[in-house]
């Protein structure tokens, strides 16, 4: 894998390493506020001596006592717990010893430095390189591993973690995020007990549906938004993942993060190497809020495609029409999009298939030609019509999948993942294409690129993936089936890479039957993701709260729909927390609702710089109270926007004043409620009053003036007063 690059790298690595390797037995990886210290022991093994707040004085690192925690434990030798790496050598020897060879540190740029540590088995030509990138300003560390086989024969890599971290605390509190279709990102916190806790996925494609590859780990006691010591971690991988937490007999914790080794032994021939995906983490002593802000900053600068660029507002037709539409109905919807004031119309599922028209989810998937009855003028005509109405046009695709009732299935039965001698197993009446087969990968690439080439002006894609892998077997891989899960994901990345070479900035939404794919492995190719098919605003607040812990608001697509019984204002205020869109029958809106929505989009455009690029303060959690309050503020702390939602409040429930966070205590701020229904006035007693940041953060605001109403919301602009 990446053979040439690897050799060039090795040469560079050695020349840089000569200087560093002899100079010290400590390797320090640090950002502005975090340090990780590794020590080369007398036995030449590398130990993790420290991970935590960076000392004021770097020289204090030398006082750090010896540690017994090897940084990247290899299996088969004296350690009796879960290893980071385990392999079987070509001669059948199932053990590995990793000794320090050299390390190199280099500046990638002003903000990022990389440390690479070369380890080698003293008896076998087998090397492991631990890579750490430190993002100084963001306080984020990204770590991954490279395994290189120079043995003559093939080795079998059984476990190959991206990262191993060790902790010594009194207690460990793990916050995980789990769910199902339309109930993603449910937050759950538990104390780790001795033994193993694993969070993982074996779902292949739609990998995150049950568990999302993110976690908080608080040390000593549970952390909240503003207090507590913790790390926040996530794996940049769009396939099976595993986080392994093991509290040992001395109450130390090891955290092993990486690709799920389940059914995925990786065979490496002579000179092959394997590069794991990255584990990305941050550390905070001031609670989850800071950890999230660190990750958001990192994501916008490094993790998400065009993370510092604006996003498009849109009107989607899925909830409004499902697959039942034709050219005329769509063009009428363009009018609505244009009257509403959004940037783009997104045509969802149902526009393709002729022999097997996609009039329901039982057929047509894979046949990416416009249905001639529904769309006689083709996509080109729709783009033109949309442009005439002053909006852009985008389209839904599910390029990795196929319905058995499709021409694609008929023509290429061997392009599909399915077990021999077993029945086909369907989810949503569909099967997964065998992306490990280069011909299939090429087909998927061309599906997307040909569509974009043919239809100049196509301005947006929603890339869906509506099933997991089951009864999985690749006709292409034959007797190398253990490569399937990993190769599938790597092949998907290659396809996306190729698409991005041609279309580097096209906005593409990552969707997987809702939030079945939400990870930083994919997000470097995508501008946003669809968090859930559940758009009931009350449910959605919890879902968006969950995602906001790890992903910045501009990546979290949030649409106003007809789900839920809440007012249009409540629904809109919820959607404005993320990347605003609409998926609703605009014609069914009352005049008042329509006027409100038009103005809300104008308001959103005014506030979106704060929402997309500002710092998020989650002030009151819906998990703690019957309300949710969050605020976004710009870097110079001159402008902020605060969202307040009363949830299922009880009669006479009492809410305390809300102390704001993140303001400049010396600045003066004017409080102005916005996003009001036409003809209504703010009920906020402090509306249009001016307060110091100090007062707002010490005394706070009463956000429930007058009679407490459930499912009521407020958007408040906070602007510096000169
Ligand atoms: C998935 C998506 C939906 C919609 C449908 C279309 O469920 O999450 O938003 O695109 O597919 O079939």
Walk me through the structure.
A hairpin with a 4-residue loop joins strand 16 and strand 17. It contains 13 helices and 36 strands. Strands 5, 6, 7, 8, 11, 12, 14, 15, 19 and 20 form a ten-stranded antiparallel sheet that branches. Strands 28-27-26-23-22-21-30-29 form an eight-stranded parallel sheet. The chain is globular and about 80 Å long. Residues 1-23 have low confidence and may be disordered. With 722 residues, it is α+β, with helices and mostly antiparallel strands. The structure holds alpha-D-galactopyranose (GLA). Residues 318, 348-349, 396, 464, 466, 511, 513-514, 530, 533 line the site of alpha-D-galactopyranose.
Keywords:
722 residues, alpha+beta, eight-stranded parallel β-sheet, 13 helices, 22% helix, globular, disordered N terminus
Outline the fold blueprint.
Elements: H1 3-21, E1 26-30, E2 34-40, E3 46-53, E4 85-88, E5 99-107, E6 112-120, E7 126-135, E8 140-149, E9 155-160, E10 163-168, E11 172-178, E12 186-191, E13 195-200, E14 211-219, E15 229-235, E16 241-247, E17 252-259, E18 266-268, E19 273-275, E20 279-284, H2 287-303, E21 314-316, H3 318-321, H4 327-340, E22 344-347, H5 378-388, E23 392-397, E24 401-402, H6 407-411, E25 431-432, H7 438-454, E26 458-463, H8 484-502, E27 508-510, H9 520-523, E28 528-529, H10 537-548, E29 557-560, H11 568-575, E30 579-582, H12 591-613, E31 615-620, E32 627-633, E33 639-646, E34 668-674, E35 690-692, H13 693-698, E36 712-720
Parallel strand pairs: 21-22, 21-30, 22-23, 23-26, 26-27, 27-28, 29-30
Antiparallel strand pairs: 1-2, 2-3, 4-9, 5-6, 6-7, 7-8, 8-19, 8-20, 9-18, 10-17, 11-12, 11-14, 13-16, 14-15, 15-20, 16-17, 24-25, 31-32, 32-33, 33-36, 34-35, 34-36
Helix pairs in contact: 7-8, 10-11
């Amino acid at each position: 894998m990446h053979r040439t690059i690897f050799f060039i790298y090795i040469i560079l690595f050695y020349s840089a390493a000569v200087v560093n390797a002899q100079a010290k037995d400590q390797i320090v990886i640090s950002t502005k506020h975090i340090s990780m210290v590794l020590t080369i022991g007398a036995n030449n093994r590398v130990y993790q001596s420290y991970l935590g707040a960076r000392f004021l004085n770097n020289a204090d690192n030398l006082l750090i006592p010896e540690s017994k925690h090897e940084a990247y434990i290899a299996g088969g030798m004296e350690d009796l717990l879960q290893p980071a790496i385990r392999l079987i050598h070509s001669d059948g020897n199932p053990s590995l010893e990793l000794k320090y060879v050299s390390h190199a540190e280099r500046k990638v740029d002003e903000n990022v430095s990389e440390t690479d540590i070369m380890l080698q088995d003293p008896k076998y030509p087998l090397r492991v390189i631990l890579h750490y990138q430190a993002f100084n300003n963001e306080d984020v560390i990204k770590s991954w591993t490279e395994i290189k086989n120079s043995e003559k024969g093939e080795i079998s890599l059984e476990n190959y973690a991206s990262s191993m971290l060790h902790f010594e605390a009194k207690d460990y509190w793990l916050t995980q995020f789990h769910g199902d279709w339309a109930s993603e990102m449910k937050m759950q916190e538990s104390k780790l007990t001795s033994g193993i806790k694993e969070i993982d996925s074996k779902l292949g494609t739609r990998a995150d549906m049950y568990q999302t590859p993110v976690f908080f780990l608080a040390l000593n006691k549970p952390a909240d938004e503003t207090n507590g010591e913790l790390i926040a971690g996530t794996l940049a991988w769009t396939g099976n993942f595993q986080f392994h937490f093991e509290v040992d007999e001395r109450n130390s914790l090891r955290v092993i993060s990486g690709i799920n080794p389940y059914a995925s032994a990786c065979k490496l021939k002579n000179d092959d190497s394997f590069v794991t995906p990255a584990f990305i983490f941050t550390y905070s002593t001031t609670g989850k809020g800071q950890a999230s802000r660190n990750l958001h900053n990192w994501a916008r600068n490094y993790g998400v495609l065009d993370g510092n660029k604006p996003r498009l507002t849109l009107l989607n037709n899925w909830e409004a029409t499902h697959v039942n539409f034709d050219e005329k109905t769509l063009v009428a919807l363009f009018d609505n999009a244009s009257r509403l004031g959004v940037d783009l119309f997104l045509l969802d599922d149902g526009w393709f298939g002729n022999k097997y028209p996609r009039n329901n989810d039982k057929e047509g998937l894979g046949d990416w030609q416009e249905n001639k009855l529904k769309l006689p003028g083709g996509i080109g005509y729709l783009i033109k019509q949309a442009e005439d109405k002053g909006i852009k046009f985008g389209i839904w695709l599910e390029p990795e999948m196929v319905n058995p009732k499709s021409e694609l299935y008929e023509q290429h039965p061997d392009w599909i993942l399915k077990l021999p001698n077993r029945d086909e197993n369907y989810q949503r009446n569909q099967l997964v294409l065998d992306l490990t087969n280069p011909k299939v990968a090429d087909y998927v690439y061309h599906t997307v690129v040909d569509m974009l080439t043919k239809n100049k002006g196509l301005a947006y894609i929603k890339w869906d993936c509506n099933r997991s892998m089951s009864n999985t077997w690749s006709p292409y891989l034959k007797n190398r089936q253990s490569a399937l899960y990993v190769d599938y994901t790597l092949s998907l990345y290659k396809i996306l890479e190729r698409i991005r070479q041609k279309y580097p900035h096209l906005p593409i939404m990552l969707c997987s039957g809702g939030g079945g794919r939400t990870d930083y492995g994919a997000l470097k190719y995508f501008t946003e993701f669809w968090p859930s098919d559940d758009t009931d605003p009350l449910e959605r607040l919890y879902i968006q709260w969950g995602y906001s812990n790890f992903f910045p608001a501009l990546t979290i697509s949030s649409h106003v729909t007809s789900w839920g019984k809440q007012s249009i204002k409540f629904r809109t205020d919820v959607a404005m927390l993320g990347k605003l869109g609409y998926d609703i029958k605009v014609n069914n809106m009352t005049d008042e609702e329509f006027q409100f929505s038009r103005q809300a989009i104008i308001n959103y455009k005014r506030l979106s710089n704060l929402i997309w690029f500002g710092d998020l303060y989650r002030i009151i959690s819906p998990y703690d109270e019957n309300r949710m309050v969050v605020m976004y503020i710009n870097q110079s702390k001159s402008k902020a926007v605060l969202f307040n939602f009363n949830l299922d409040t009880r009669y006479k429930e009492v809410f305390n004043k809300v102390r704001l966070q993140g303001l400049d205590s010396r600045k003066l701020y004017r409080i102005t409620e916005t996003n009001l229904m036409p003809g209504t006035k703010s009920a906020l007693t402090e509306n249009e009053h001016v307060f110091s940041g100090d007062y707002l953060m010490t005394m706070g605001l009463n956000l429930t003036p007058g009679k407490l109403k459930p499912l009521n919301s407020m958007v408040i602009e906070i602007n510096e007063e000169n």
